[in-house]
Write a structure and sequence with these properties.
It contains nine helices and 15 strands. The chain binds threonylcarbamoyladenylate and magnesium ion.
Length: 318
Amino acid sequence: MKNIYSNIRKVNTKILSKAVNHLKRNDLIGVPTETVYGLAGNAYSRNSVKKIYSLKKRPKFNPLIIHYLNKDQIANDVILNNNFFRIYKNLCPGPITFILKKKISSKVTSLATANLKTIAIRFPKNKMIRKLLKEINFPLAIPSANKSGGISPVEPKDVAEEFGGKVKLIIDDGKTKIGLESTVIDLTGRAKILRPGSLSAEKISKILRSKELTERKFKKIKSPGSIKKHYSPGIPMLLNQKIVNKNFAFIAFGSKYKNDKNIFNLSKESDLDEAAKNLYRIFRIIKNKNYKKIYVAKIPNRGIGIAINDRLNHAAKF
Ligand code: TXA
Ligand code: MG
């Protein structure tokens, strides 16, 4: 067991320069972000991006998010607009991904954008990944560091569990702050949320000063990545359950549950931020305990609870 963890390292000057060298050679590394851990490669290199798809076993039609230090790096890659500037000014760096039109002149490989005319860009807030982005002169394609369809990693050992020694270096920055992926917003036309995340539609629409962004609307719209089975522990999951069954794992929320060994509480204090942070960790624990079925309590559908319910709904489609 121990040897699969030997590639996990805390950042210091030596490790940072090792990480930079891996990326310059178009090799992949595991990196922390404030949302989930990612699998990073040079977005300008077709070779590097090819490795991402192959390691994740990700279908080629599902494009990747390109990560930048700040907006000074994006001029050659994307066509910008006012909605972008408004959100950028208020919420970046942070857990939000923008879909914008891709410039023909962009050096981002078309493999990373699945041959689409659009590109997904994000400016992560995590200090470690920002240190790394400062040292390189290309952006990074970073999907969540899990096999396609599986559970996103929220700590370094999860990345090792997914890919073992196939990733040469995993940068350790402890548990991720948020625990759920970024909000994906399409700004190519009327603003639409394609994937709910920790930044809520309410917060974003206040910044856009318009009523064009509603929660009801985004339910119908899909990212190419919204394949049915997703974020899944690979075990049948039943949502909105009230009664605990001793034989199954029960994902609870709130103070009324006992401390039985099959009960995994997302937040005893009914705190949705805490629940978001615990969700994937609990999925992974349950998966590793070989339960045959998972029951899940009802989770309030407000704020980040909307993103939690989105992930639960996908995971339940197993
Ligand atoms: O928080 C996050 O966003 C994490 C961290 C590592 O940054 N990344 C992440 O990447 O969640 P990934 O690959 O697991 O999910 C990217 C999502 C997919 O649903 C994909 O379909 C969507 O973004 N996406 C990427 N490019 C797109 C585009 N041009 N149009 C619409 N959706 C796009
Ligand atoms: Mg993912």
